[in-house]
Design brief:
elongated; 5 helices
């Protein structure tokens, strides 16, 4: 027997695409976090990026991002509100590193560009979802038997 009024509203195509987008960003965040961990423990870069061999700015940045990216990935995957917040902190850290301080960390324009594209797509999704919710609230519903 099917209920007359479902407790959960049906997801729109935009909702499904937004969740897919968040999960793709989560996978990339997890990979970035793994790269930082691999660098810090000496698994990558032929051991040259081990924590004890890094300069102080790199120690602070790499350890922060090694923690932030996997936790942001979890939040994005679960589609909870703190996931994008932690992604903004991690992406902002990388943009600051590679965009504003290239003399210390080197320049990586691709990372800066990709974070900008992801932020723009996120804002577009949020705007479209807001417009859909606004339109949905304006529709008249009659709850007569």
């Amino acid at each position: 027997m099917e209920h007359d009024s479902p407790t959960m509203p049906k997801r729109t195509l935009t909702d499904i695409l937004f969740i897919l987008f968040l999960r793709l960003v989560a996978i990339s965040c997890f990979c970035l976090g793994l790269q930082y961990w691999a660098m810090l423990v000496g698994y990558s870069l032929a051991g040259a990026g081990r924590f004890d061999l890094l300069s102080l700015p790199w120690k602070v940045a790499a350890t922060s991002l090694a923690v932030l990216f996997p936790v942001a990935a979890l939040g994005l995957w679960l589609t909870v509100s703190w996931g994008p917040v932690l992604w903004v902190l991690a992406a902002g850290g990388q943009i600051l590193m590679y965009g504003m301080l290239p003399e210390t960390f080197g320049a990586n324009r691709l990372i800066v560009l990709l974070h900008g594209v992801v932020a723009l797509l996120y804002l577009v999704f949020r705007l479209v979802l807001w417009l859909e919710n606004r339109r949905h609230r304006r529709q008249v519903s009659v709850d007569l038997p």
